[in-house]
Write a structure and sequence with these properties.
The complex is a heterodimer of chains A (237) and B (209). Chain A folds into two domains: 132 residues, Rossmann fold (3-Layer(aba) Sandwich); 88 residues, no CATH class. Chain A is globular. By secondary structure, chain A is α/β, with parallel strands linked by helices. Chain B has two domains: 80 residues, Methionine synthase domain (Methyltransferase, Methionine Synthase (B12-binding Domains), Chain A, domain 1, Orthogonal Bundle), CATH 1.10.1240.10; 119 residues, Rossmann fold, CATH 3.40.50. In chain B, 56% of the residues lie in helices and 11% in strands. Chain B has a five-stranded parallel β-sheet with strand order 2-1-3-4-5, sandwiched between helices. In chain B, helix 2 runs parallel beside helix 4. The mean pLDDT of chain B is 94. The chains are: A alpha/beta (237), B alpha/beta (209). The structure holds cobalamin. Cobalamin sits at the interface of chains B and A.
Amino acid sequence: MQSGRTRTAEMPPWPPIRQSAWCRGGVVPADAARPRVLILACGALARELGVIIDRNGLAGFDVECLPARLHSRPEQIPGAVDRHLRRVVGRYERIFVAYADCGTGGRLDEVLARYGVERLTGAHCYQFYAGTDRFQALHEEEPGTLYLTDYVVRHFDRLIWRGLGLDRHPELLEDYFGNYRRVVYLAQTENPALTAQAEAAADRLGLILEHRYVGYGELEPALVDITAPAETRVATA
Amino acid sequence: MDEIDEIYEAVLDGDMRATPEYVQAALDAGVSASAILQEGMIAAMNEVGRLFEEDEYFVPEMLIAARAMKAGLSILRPFLVDAGIEPVGKVVLGTVQGDMHDIGKNLVGMMLEGAGFEIVDLGTDVAPAQFVEAVRNGVDILGLSALLTTTLSSMESTIKAIEEAGLRGAVKLMVGGAPVTDGYARKIGADGYAPDASQAATLAISLIA
Ligand code: B12
């Protein structure tokens, strides 16, 4: 039997994404007091969190991001979140995790329950950007849909094209997308350059593009709420 | 390198051209079809699974290895049949309604085929009624795959539909896919869960034993 043999392959490197300023040093609290709230976020949300923080004038909390590459290895998300929470738990009054379930099948929730920490509702970012009902309707309308967000459009080449090895193995296109009928771009911003990139992405996959402007969906109210002073919070996210 | 080593390496490298050639060469050299399958191709796919676990292979490496094994199997299949190896059972596989992920399911299908099962693959986005129909037509094991948290509920509704059709006793149900856990499988009334394709084959054999 050969099953004991092992091999190490050269993995395609994940080209580094420039970490947003929000994720590097955290947000300087407005009153210069030590922040009591931490938002621990998926790196894929860094830019969007920055925009929401800016336009709502939110302050008084820290933001830390885990690597966006975990998105493609969801089985590693609960462990990574657990390790991070263990390090910081005593330092904050409130911690909020800006992840959805993200394909962890409830394993992330098990970790969060141990710390009494909340997360974004829903299954994944496509759902909380579009809104649960709208996402469900879109998905029922055409299950063979690939969704894009601003983040996915920006990093399409790295995440999808090279991430799925289509640069090295274009013959796999049919294996991946043979059952797909369309691409729906759930746009956070109205940005013609990104729309053009989304069109080019759909084109590369041989699929038609539908553009839907959805903004930040459920992410924005969740963030505004979690960063509000405890007495003014209206709901748990 | 002997013939089996060559097949093992070719599958591991995802070499779709060399794998069938090596399989043919091994057969010509008198190596048994089942040794080629078990010690060459299945052992290689088990190693691919391990490398995936260890973060050293990712989805494309896994897919090209699977393609190479498929190409090898197309040469080998008639010899397995000639060797009088009867299918050990019939498995119907499908990805549940609303879900189009099929890489894992296809791998499970290949490993089950390697373990001697006859496979009927219903594809992706399979409605509960289609699964019920397949069970009605006679099958030993039904394998349901789901990769989206949002489609886990389709797994549950499929099992309910089979119960409501009065067919639950007629089939063993196994479930899998990244968000599925042993606990979830139990909760929805499946007979078994496996985290990967090679354990799926072991599970299937135990379910019909
Ligand atoms: C490749 C991939 C895709 C490919 C799928 C191509 C294809 N033809 O299948 C593409 C890019 C098209 C895709 C699309 C989408 N995907 Co996707 N995808 C993945 C990814 C990266 C890998 C899945 C995979 O193939 N793994 C390799 C195989 C071998 O592993 P596996 O499927 O787990 O199967 C093994 C075991 O689970 C088990 N098993 C599987 N089935 C069965 C069945 C039985 C009976 C048994 C016993 C065992 C068993 O054995 C298998 C072999 O070892 C995962 C992340 C991840 N690592 O899981 C995301 C992931 C599953 N996708 C996700 C999402 C959100 C989507 C999209 C909505 C994204 C989008 N931008 O539109 C769409 C939706 C597609 C749809 N309509 O269904 C999320 C799900 C999140 C959630 N909460 O549900 C994940 C987790 C990524 C993430 N973290 O966000 N995806």
